[in-house]
UniProtKB/TrEMBL annotation:
Keywords: Oxidoreductase. One of its GO terms (molecular function) is riboflavin reductase (NADPH) activity. Residues 36-195 form the Flavin reductase like domain. Pfam families: Flavin_Reduct. This is Flavin reductase like domain-containing protein. SUPFAM superfamilies: FMN-binding split barrel (SSF50475). InterPro entries: Flavin_Rdtase-like_dom (IPR002563), NADH-dep_flavin_reductase (IPR050268), Split_barrel_FMN-bd (IPR012349).
Length: 200
């Protein structure tokens, strides 16, 4: 258990009075964005493909991935900003693979590339798959061969939320490719891809 800091009354008063407060809708958006930068998030690359032609494929890096339910048939979720060619293809396919990059420079660069694909180089998405270590799967979407692990999932629900779409998927199979029980997956914080720090 992490010990609770023992703040004096003076220190507590200082932190309370110097905390930044955001009220208006603009400030709330800006404040939340700034605050969340210091909260580490998972960095996964999610792939999908056309069910009739697997050569039509898309990939996207997301930091919103999370487990939703650990029931007998687990559920996971992530969201995508609209409009999105990835989301359009996923509506047709319904299958996707969650690839967990390793905490290394090579995978950090790959995650960055897929994070900007939808904005700058979406039309060359095929080249991105060819330049990395991608493997075909019977499930359909391509898999990152040397990933820490991956989840094969099927969409069960899509929920529109403002300018995003929340996607909920059911996990069909899990591939644990980690070489060490203590090996870390890639994370994202402070606008950078990172590895976990020391234990507290």
């Amino acid at each position: 258990m992490i010990p609770r800091p023992n703040f004096s009354n003076a220190a507590s008063s200082y932190y309370l009075h110097n905390a930044r407060r955001y009220n208006s809708s603009y400030n709330l958006q800006d404040g939340l964005r700034k605050f969340m930068r210091c909260v580490p998030q998972p960095a996964v690359i999610i792939t999908t493909c056309c069910s009739e032609n697997h050569k039509i494929r898309r990939g996207i890096t997301v930091s919103s991935f999370n487990t939703l339910s650990m029931a007998e048939h687990p559920l996971v979720s992530f969201n995508v900003q609209l409009p999105s060619r990835f989301a359009e293809l996923l509506r047709q396919s319904s299958k996707f693979i969650v690839n967990f990059p390793r905490a290394c420079r090579e995978h950090a660069a790959l995650a960055h590339t897929f994070s900007i694909a939808g904005f700058k180089i979406e039309e060359r998405i095929g080249d991105l798959f060819e330049s990395a270590k991608w493997s075909a799967t019977k499930f359909g979407p391509l898999a990152l061969t040397d990933a820490l692990g991956r989840l094969h999932c099927e969409v069960v629900e899509r929920i529109p939320v403002e300018d995003h779409e929340l996607i909920i998927g059911r996990v069909k199979s899990i591939y644990d490719l980690s070489e060490d029980a203590d090996e870390d997956a890639l994370i994202y914080a402070h606008r950078n891809y990172c590895a976990l720090g020391e234990k507290l």
